[in-house]
């Protein structure tokens, strides 16, 4: 059984519709796939319908990649199998999505002031769904000929953290986010904690703190993790009783259509989802 627990569709910053993501997942030889769009569950139904309609159906795992912030740095949590209508969580997701729009509009304004010929309408059209983000702005910059690639937009010259056009956004404290997802009946995994080229580098103490809050796993096998980082994270997860997961973090054409490049061991997946915490046992 081949399991990929982290990928994106064009509902957030991927390039493929949810149904196409499911079709490509099966073509890549996957048996289980989680759709984890940024701060939204809008692609769940389309993905679920497509997964079961395939000639050889996939096991679909509804998920999300939730925006958090720790000590001023962006941190991402993967949540699975939770109730998106749980009131407190739903309110926070709505606030995050609303702020995404406000932030993106301000970043476009700053770019325009810097002489970049893009418009909010272009960025909004590229986003399509409700979860607009910096990759959509970067794609508009590529289309305008300002930068040659999306990665070239993520520099201090443009829209990287601390960049000339960067704007901070609202994000949850990660320990609180873990508790919210658990409260909604879900399972939480820390996404790519040592993805150095993205600036996501969190020490052991952060993982220990989140484990105490109810974190269930760590994304160890990720395309942006070095062998040394993977070894350290695997040891740490074992000592904390956390599941070790692996995933492609596929964004379609933006990441070279890499579904299935990294996977989660079936035993780790089954153990993780079997230990979903009932609400009255969640850390508070």
Automatic annotation (TrEMBL):
Name of the protein in question: PHP domain-containing protein
**Domain Polymerase/histidinol phosphatase N-terminal: residue ranges:** 3-70
Pfam families xref list: PHP (PF02811)
One GO MF annotation is: 5'-3' DNA exonuclease activity
Which SMART domains does this one have? POLIIIAc (SM00481)
Reading the lineage from the top rank, the first entry is: Bacteria
PANTHER family the UniProt entry points to: EXONUCLEASE (PTHR42924), POLYMERASE_HISTIDINOL PHOSPHATASE N-TERMINAL DOMAIN-CONTAINING PROTEIN (PTHR42924:SF3)
């Amino acid at each position: 059984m081949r399991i990929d627990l982290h990928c994106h569709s064009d509902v957030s910053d991927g390039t493929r519709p949810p149904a196409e993501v499911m079709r490509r997942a099966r073509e890549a030889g996957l048996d289980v796939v989680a759709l984890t769009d940024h701060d939204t569950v809008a692609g769940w139904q389309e993905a679920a319908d497509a997964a079961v309609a395939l000639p050889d159906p996939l096991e679909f795992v509804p998920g999300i990649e939730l925006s958090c912030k720790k000590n001023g740095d962006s941190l991402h949590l993967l949540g699975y199998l939770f109730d998106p209508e749980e009131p407190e969580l739903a309110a926070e997701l709505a606030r995050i999505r609303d702020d995404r729009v406000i932030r993106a509009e301000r970043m476009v304004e700053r770019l325009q002031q810097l002489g970049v010929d893009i418009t909010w309408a272009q960025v909004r059209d590229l986003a399509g769904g409700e979860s607009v983000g910096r990759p959509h702005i970067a794609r508009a910059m590529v289309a305008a000929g300002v930068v040659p690639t999306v990665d070239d937009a993520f520099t201090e010259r443009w829209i990287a953290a601390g960049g000339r056009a960067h704007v901070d956004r609202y994000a949850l404290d990660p320990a609180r986010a873990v508790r919210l997802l658990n409260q909604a009946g879900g399972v939480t995994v820390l996404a790519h904690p040592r993805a150095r080229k993205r600036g996501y580098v969190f020490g052991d103490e952060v993982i220990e703190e989140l484990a105490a809050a109810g974190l269930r796993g760590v994304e160890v096998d990720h395309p942006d993790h070095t062998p040394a980082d993977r070894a350290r994270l695997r040891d740490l997860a074992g000592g904390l009783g956390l599941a070790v997961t692996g995933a492609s973090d596929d964004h379609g054409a933006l990441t070279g259509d890499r579904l299935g490049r990294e996977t989660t061991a079936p035993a780790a997946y089954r153990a993780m989802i079997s230990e979903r915490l009932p609400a009255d046992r969640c850390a508070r």
